[in-house]
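Researcher: We plan to redesign the surface later, but first we want a full-length starting point. Tokens attached.
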């Protein structure tokens, strides 16, 4: 498969199953075009000249007629802001005139970290979707029985100009009319980004556009992937990563377990190393190694702390879940494991093996970008890129996966470590380790996927329902395989990872080739606070 199959003229090939929901859409198309253009800019960049930024909106949206919306000029304005975000820059002031390159010198600085906010709403791209509105559609048959009227407790439904209508000032959104309509002609309209937000951080500004409450936001990115208009986007470090690759400092790619199958069938596990080396990376390590180390540490923490010190223990690897727990449930948040995440353990290991190098985490998660900003972690992870962003790099380099030589499958992690990619995998790995090393200890587990269900699980934990349990929380429905930066449908990715797990040389964390490094890494103060 040539990676450029998605980058013809702006027409969507709807036969390709790509994206969180398994559908390759116009929104995916625009994002990947922008990432590819920014990657080209980075590979070609020299001598402080970023003037080529001005050409990117015209490369993505050529001509004078709109390809996605009604106006090519509006499309290019939106792509301009996407370009800035892809360079790690802030959006421009929407009420003032500034050049596309204003402040662009920031992205040239090699040690640039993400500046808040990570998730951004491009206001003039927002459709100002109706939210929490019960609406009678054209499917209404104006039937004689009028069951919708009969069940409405507020008499909010009446006939106006020959059709049923709802008085929104009276409607209490109880849903009784929806259930009673025999034609299913009544529906509840919800803003997709707000519905997807498990921490209720999405509201509306004075103009009706989506607005993010950054005091609540945990940067999971689910609002981004669920916005049908592509109005929400996060910042990227594509440019900074490529500049590091072009320097004399070796840069390693630490690749999350969810990578298997993400880039299509031609990108087999045996080709991952050569593919990333073709981008300029020195070598590749799989973060499943760090998952094995995290498994061991969390198992030891559980045995030592539950129930003597804390009533239950929550897993630590998902930053969105961890941050939500600490924000919304301060007391229960103290029960989240303090073990470093697989990303950080892998980065720390790589820097032990090659002091002075840089490490780029490649994964499915938007929240990892902010995790890497924490003061205690910045020395371990230099860059964070999603699979979607890296796909833009492959496109910029014109790499055809099918033509790459096959090598070994990165470095040997256990099957349990690779299983961290999907819901239930973390708890399963910890339980397997405890069974092996503490056979007399029974471990009860519960899991939640998606922040709304994670919140419900913590409510039950607060009520004492999960005392003695190991709780696994995943911010994205399905686990990391459904992260905001993924490319493939969740079931397809899970199947590919399970196949990869079967050929692992080790099954459990204790059998990992790197298990003996844990004591060494513990000397580097492995317990990490949430502060940034």
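Model: Full-length starting sequence:
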């Amino acid at each position: 498969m040539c990676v450029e199959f998605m980058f013809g003229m702006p027409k969507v090939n709807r036969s390709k199953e790509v994206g969180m929901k398994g559908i390759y859409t116009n929104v995916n198309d625009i994002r990947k075009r922008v990432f590819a253009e920014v990657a080209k800019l980075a590979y070609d960049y020299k001598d402080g000249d970023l003037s080529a930024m001005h050409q990117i909106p015209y490369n993505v949206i050529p001509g004078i007629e709109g390809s996605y919306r009604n106006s090519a000029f509006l499309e290019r304005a939106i792509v301009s802001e996407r370009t800035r975000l892809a360079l790690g820059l802030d959006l421009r002031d929407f009420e003032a005139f500034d050049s596309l390159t204003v402040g662009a010198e920031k992205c040239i600085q090699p040690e640039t970290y993400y500046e808040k906010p990570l998730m951004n709403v491009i206001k003039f791209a927002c459709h100002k979707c109706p939210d929490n509105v019960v609406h009678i559609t054209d499917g209404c048959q104006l039937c004689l029985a009028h069951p919708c009227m009969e069940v409405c407790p507020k008499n909010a439904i009446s006939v106006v100009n020959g059709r049923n209508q709802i008085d929104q000032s009276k409607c209490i959104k109880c849903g009784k009319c929806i259930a009673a309509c025999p034609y299913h002609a009544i529906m509840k309209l919800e803003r997709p980004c707000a519905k997807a937000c498990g921490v209720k951080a999405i509201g509306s500004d004075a103009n009706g556009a989506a607005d993010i409450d950054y005091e609540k936001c945990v940067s999971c990115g689910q609002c981004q992937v669920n916005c049908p208009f592509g109005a929400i986007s996060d910042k990227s470090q594509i440019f900074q990563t490529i500049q590091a690759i072009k320097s004399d400092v070796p840069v390693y790619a630490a690749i999350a377990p969810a990578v298997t199958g993400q880039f299509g069938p031609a990108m087999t596990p045996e080709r991952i190393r050569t593919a990333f080396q073709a981008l300029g990376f020195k070598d590749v390590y799989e973060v499943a190694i760090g998952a094995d180390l995290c498994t061991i540490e969390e198992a030891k923490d559980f045995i030592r702390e539950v129930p003597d010190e804390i009533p239950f223990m929550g897993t630590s690897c998902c930053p969105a879940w961890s941050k939500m727990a600490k924000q919304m449930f301060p007391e229960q948040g103290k029960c989240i494991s303090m073990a470093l995440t697989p990303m950080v353990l892998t980065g720390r290991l790589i820097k032990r093996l090659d002091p002075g190098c840089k490490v780029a985490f490649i994964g499915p998660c938007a929240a990892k970008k902010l995790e890497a900003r924490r003061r205690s972690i910045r020395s371990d992870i230099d860059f964070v890129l999603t699979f979607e962003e890296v796909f833009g790099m492959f496109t910029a380099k014109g790499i055809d996966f099918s033509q790459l030589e096959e090598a070994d499958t990165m470095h040997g992690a256990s099957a349990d470590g690779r299983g961290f990619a999907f819901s239930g995998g973390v708890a399963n790995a910890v339980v397997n380790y405890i069974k092996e090393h503490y056979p007399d200890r029974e471990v009860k587990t519960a899991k939640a996927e998606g922040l709304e269900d994670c919140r419900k699980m913590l409510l039950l934990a607060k009520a004492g329902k999960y005392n003695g349990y190991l709780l696994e929380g995943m911010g994205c429905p399905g686990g990391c395989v459904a992260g905001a930066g993924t490319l493939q449908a969740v079931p397809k990715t899970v199947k590919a990872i399970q196949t990869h797990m079967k050929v692992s040389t080790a099954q459990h964390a204790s059998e990992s080739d790197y298990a003996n490094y844990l004591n060494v890494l513990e000397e580097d103060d492995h317990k990490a606070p949430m502060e940034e």
